[in-house]
Design goal:
There is one protein chain. Among the domains are: 47 residues; 131 residues, no CATH class. A six-stranded antiparallel beta sheet has the order 1-2-6-5-4-3, with helices on one face. 29% of the residues lie in helices and 15% in strands. The protein starts with a helix and ends in a 7-residue tail after the last strand. About 11% of the residues have low confidence. By secondary structure, the chain is α+β, with helices and mostly antiparallel strands.
């Protein structure tokens, strides 16, 4: 009451005009009542409570963490509907046994020889002498090497002097008995293997050319006497050895015949 009386008498002490004091007194009273009500309200209590919070306490910041979105679950695949059709298994059929066949072949009537037909004779050549014995493979290789030597020698001669191998008969020789056992020239003397006829050139012209060519081809020639009307030469080619008998023809124009023997012809 003492404070209120003072406040009410406060405009009077200020020596204000009467009109102003009449206005200030109600305003002061209203202000007093308002402030009292304001202090007594719950808001003021809360403010006071908030003020009681110690200032030295540290404030904690809370961060919001965004959670990753879970991927959507895949929709389960629908199983394909089973076919209602049933697989039809055909019944097994047992194979019928086949009757046994005769494995022995039937004889061919054309293959069996006719008893009335005579056997066909073996082919014979009248141009070359038949050997007395079957040659061995090594002998065949040696004879082939010397025939190739004489064949390549003929290639060096003019075309008119090129002859043939195995085309000599007794009718063109001066001493045919020295080379053939029969008059037809089908059987040669033992050791006679082959021959070469070089037409239109004499032995005197052939021998120097043959010796020169044979030596240039690696062959070695040496004199080994005479036989059948002409000279004999021993010819060596590596491990092979043969004898060449070089004689003239008995017909005109004179040619040269070279016989190949597997050994010395005079010793046969």
């Amino acid at each position: 009451m003492h404070l209120g009386s003072r406040l009410l008498s406060w405009p009077k002490n200020l020596h204000l005009p009467t009109n102003v004091r009449r206005v200030l007194r109600p305003m002061l009273l209203f202000s007093l009542i308002f402030h009292v009500a304001l202090f007594l309200s719950p808001t003021s209590l809360n403010i006071d409570k908030k003020a009681e919070i110690p200032k030295d306490r540290k404030s904690t910041k809370i961060r919001s963490i965004k959670l990753a979105k879970k991927p959507p679950k895949a929709a389960p695949k629908k199983a394909a509907p089973r076919s209602s059709t049933k697989t039809i298994i055909p019944p097994l059929v047992k194979p019928e046994p086949t009757p046994p066949t005769d494995e022995s072949p039937s004889p061919d009537p054309s293959a069996s020889p006719s008893p009335d037909a005579p056997p066909s004779p073996a082919p014979s050549s009248s141009s070359s002498p038949s050997p007395s014995a079957s040659p061995t493979p090594a002998a065949d290789q040696a004879l082939k090497a010397f025939e190739e030597l004489l064949g390549s020698f003929q290639d060096t001669l003019p075309a008119t002097n090129k002859g043939a191998t195995g085309a000599v008969g007794p009718d063109v020789l001066v001493e045919p008995e020295k080379f053939f056992k029969d008059e037809d020239g089908e059987v040669g003397q033992p050791g006679l293997e082959s021959n070469v006829w070089i037409p239109l050139i004499t032995p005197e012209e052939t021998i120097p050319l043959l010796v020169q060519y044979a030596q240039s081809s690696g062959a070695v020639l040496s004199d080994a006497g005479t036989y059948g009307g002409g000279p004999v030469y021993k010819v060596v080619m590596g491990s092979y050895q043969r004898y060449f008998v070089i004689v003239p023809t008995s017909i005109k124009p004179v040619g040269t015949i070279i016989f190949i023997w597997n050994g010395p012809p005079a010793a046969q």
